[in-house]
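Sequence, please.
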């Protein structure tokens, strides 16, 4: 188990579950026992610590109840042991954060003189165990306060030791913010003021060091009516005298001498230039700024991951927001390109080395191992306010995390799984239509856009509102100022040549899509290509199972969503999550450019989907209560759907939950799939009106129940027209019969007798 008491009480089981303990006095009892872990605490002492003097008459009974409840929390009731002298809570080495703190501090302080680098790492690790609010569940009694003060004094000494380690390593500039915080927290601690003065002087800020002495002298006179002590007075005089021994290897009075080191490197400002015509994203920018601004007041460094499909503008947004935050991170803004989707990706190990060198670490001083580099980065960031922007991450990036509050990490990635634990995820969508037009205006001029608004809207829609595609389109239009927008809209509107239009020099949509697709496993690449052939608006995951012919649809969909290649669009009326394949990715995958292996024709894909729609629509139609006097579909068509072979193979890969949901609410299934059903019927009409009629039959009763007779009439008129052109008289007759049913339903009249029930192979 794991126990934490240096902030709020937290107890985790062996399987990392946090125990739910809500009663305040129960939490207080456990905190006290952990503060004295492995040592008996007498019953009267527990009473004093929890309730203070004059406890309630029921205190003894309540204490027994709390002790009994405490025993029930642990898998091993023997953890809470009864001794003749009281009660003791047993913990093993490494289980309690207080024990870890004491061990790390003891070892760190022993290494101060011989190995200040390791001492600094250990002391920082020890102090990072403290969380706000400090000792939050200890009761506010006088007896408890005395024990808490003793522990806080130990923490203060550890902070003082860390300062000496940092000064010994030459981190004078970095340690100033920590020293100011220590002095403000305990303004009567003259030693903290002395360390601050020394750090300022060694940072080349002699005037600030002298002003600090004036400040503390005034404070002591006002608060206590005394002058500064000998340590401060001697240090003040030595600064006035510019005493060489303050920055020399020789001994210093009252404190061990620290080695002289070079001046700290200037604060790095590595952000790429902001985009002059950056457009839209007001809400996303405001949220990013709000999350990262919290670095100044949070107890842990904020981490934000911006993810989204290729070309959606993740890097542009991150850089734009980072520029607005420069004043919030005065100690530097670091930028590292991880390049996960480039030809030469940079691993976390190399990225850490680059960041350390940017922070002034000499090349020869950069550690060899990744863990040591991560530890040194946390040390370098300690007490500083630095923003790290890591662009295009692929995998886990925990090693880039700052160790303490004050700094922050902003990541971009095409993979949602690149987010470190505790990160906030911002899923970036394409621009709105209005912002897309505004972006075009800023690139080609307002007059051209407002003079042809419809053509401009068609150009933006053809670019799928993606900033990358819009920028390429704008570059082409800006290079041809005499071109009408309507001409370009016709060119880019051709789906077959659109990706060719969206290429400009070394920038293009294909180049952005290719690495993301190449990172997929073969099954996910095949699924993406088959979905492109299916040309569906949005769909549930069972569609992927039908296309792949296997029961692993949810896994494949999860992979595509994690890589930002499928867009979640909500949950339908049956409770199934829905997804959409982005338009430009559909064109790319449909052309077989994603490298998915052997190509499968669009006709085979559509045939598979048609079988699935017929199978499920038939089940849903049977689950509906049929309107009065409305005959069902032709019985001969049921036999076709029930035939063994292909339809049976489709049924085998549709999850049982889909059939269950159709049984529970068939109407909801029709509502969820209505747009796809209409699309499939319209697609089948020109070449196979008989197949379109079979599917239209299955949704006709639902259309009548929900007042969609105009849609039904449009569908059946088109089926009749296409069947007549192909000479399929039986289908024409059936379509006319359904049109008569529509007329009867509108007028409340009687449905005519059925005619022309012949069957076309369609």
């Amino acid at each position: 188990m794991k126990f934490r008491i240096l902030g709020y009480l937290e107890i985790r089981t062996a399987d990392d579950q946090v125990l739910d303990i809500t009663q305040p006095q129960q939490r207080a009892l456990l905190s006290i026992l952990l503060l004295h872990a492995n040592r008996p605490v007498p019953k009267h002492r527990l009473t004093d610590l929890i309730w203070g003097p004059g406890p309630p008459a029921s205190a003894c009974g309540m204490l027994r109840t709390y002790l009994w409840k405490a025993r029930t929390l642990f898998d091993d009731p023997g953890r809470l042991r009864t001794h003749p002298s009281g009660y003791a809570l047993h913990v093993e080495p490494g289980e309690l954060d207080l024990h870890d703190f004491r061990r790390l501090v003891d070892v760190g302080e022993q290494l101060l003189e011989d190995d200040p680098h390791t001492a600094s790492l250990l002391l920082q690790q020890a102090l990072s165990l403290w969380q706000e609010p400090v000792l939050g569940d200890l009761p506010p009694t006088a007896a408890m306060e005395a024990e808490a003060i003793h522990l806080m004094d130990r923490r203060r000494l550890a902070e003082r030791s860390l300062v000496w380690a940092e000064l010994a390593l030459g981190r004078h500039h970095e340690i100033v913010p920590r020293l100011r915080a220590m002095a403000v927290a305990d303004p009567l601690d003259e030693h903290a003021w002395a360390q601050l003065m020394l750090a300022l002087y060694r940072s080349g800020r002699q005037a600030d060091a002298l002003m600090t002495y004036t400040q503390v002298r005034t404070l002591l006179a006002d608060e206590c009516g005394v002058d500064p002590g000998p340590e401060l007075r001697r240090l003040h005089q030595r600064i006035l005298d510019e005493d060489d021994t303050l920055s020399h290897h020789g001994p210093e009075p009252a404190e061990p001498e620290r080695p002289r080191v070079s001046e700290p490197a200037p604060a790095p400002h590595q952000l790429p230039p902001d985009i002059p015509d950056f457009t839209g994203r007001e809400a996303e920018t405001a949220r990013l700024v709000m999350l990262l601004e919290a670095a100044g007041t949070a107890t842990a460094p904020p981490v934000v991951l911006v993810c989204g499909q290729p070309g959606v503008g993740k890097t542009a947004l991150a850089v734009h927001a980072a520029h607005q935050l420069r004043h919030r991170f005065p100690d530097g803004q670091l930028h590292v390109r991880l390049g996960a989707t480039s030809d030469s990706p940079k691993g976390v190990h190399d990225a850490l080395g680059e960041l350390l060198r940017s922070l002034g670490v000499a090349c020869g001083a950069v550690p060899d191992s990744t863990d040591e580099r991560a530890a040194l980065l946390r040390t370098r960031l300690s007490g500083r306010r630095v923003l790290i922007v890591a662009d295009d991450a692929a995998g886990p990036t925990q090693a880039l995390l700052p160790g303490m509050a004050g700094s922050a990490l902003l990541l971009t990635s095409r993979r949602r799984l690149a987010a470190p634990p505790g990160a906030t995820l911002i899923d970036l969508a394409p621009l709105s239509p209005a912002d897309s037009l505004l972006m075009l205006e800023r690139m080609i001029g307002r007059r051209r856009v407002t003079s042809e608004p419809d053509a401009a809207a068609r150009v933006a829609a053809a670019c799928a509102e993606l900033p990358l595609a819009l920028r390429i389109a704008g570059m082409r239009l800006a290079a041809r100022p005499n071109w009408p927008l309507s001409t370009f809209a016709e060119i880019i509107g051709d789906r077959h040549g659109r990706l060719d239009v969206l290429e400009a020099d070394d920038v293009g949509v294909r180049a952005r899509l290719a690495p993301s697709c190449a990172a997929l496993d073969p099954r996910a690449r095949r699924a993406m290509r088959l979905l492109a052939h299916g040309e569906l608006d949005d769909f549930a995951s069972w569609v992927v199972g039908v296309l792949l012919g296997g029961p692993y649809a949810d896994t494949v969909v999860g992979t595509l969503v994690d890589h930002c290649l499928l867009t979640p669009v909500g949950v339908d009326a049956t409770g199934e999550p829905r997804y959409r394949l982005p338009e430009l990715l559909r064109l790319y995958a449909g052309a077989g450019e994603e490298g998915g292996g052997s190509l499968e024709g669009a006709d085979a894909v559509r045939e598979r989907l048609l079988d699935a729609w017929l199978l499920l629509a038939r089940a849903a139609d049977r689950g509906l209560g049929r309107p009065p006097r409305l005959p069902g579909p032709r019985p001969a068509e049921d036999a076709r759907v029930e035939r063994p072979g292909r339809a049976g193979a489709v049924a085998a890969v549709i999850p049982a939950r889909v059939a269950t949901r159709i049984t529970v609410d068939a109407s909801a299934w029709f509502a969820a799939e209505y747009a796809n059903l209409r699309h499939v019927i319209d697609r089948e009409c020109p070449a196979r009106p008989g197949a379109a009629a079979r599917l239209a039959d299955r949704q006709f009763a639902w259309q009548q129940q929900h007042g969609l007779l105009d849609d039904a009439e449009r569908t059946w008129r088109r089926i009749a027209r296409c069947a007549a052109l192909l000479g399929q008289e039986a289908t024409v007759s059936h379509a006319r019969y359904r049109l008569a049913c529509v007329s009867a339903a509108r007028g409340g009249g009687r449905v005519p007798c059925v005619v022309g029930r012949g069957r076309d192979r369609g």
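The CA atoms of residues 502 and 706 lie 43 Å apart.
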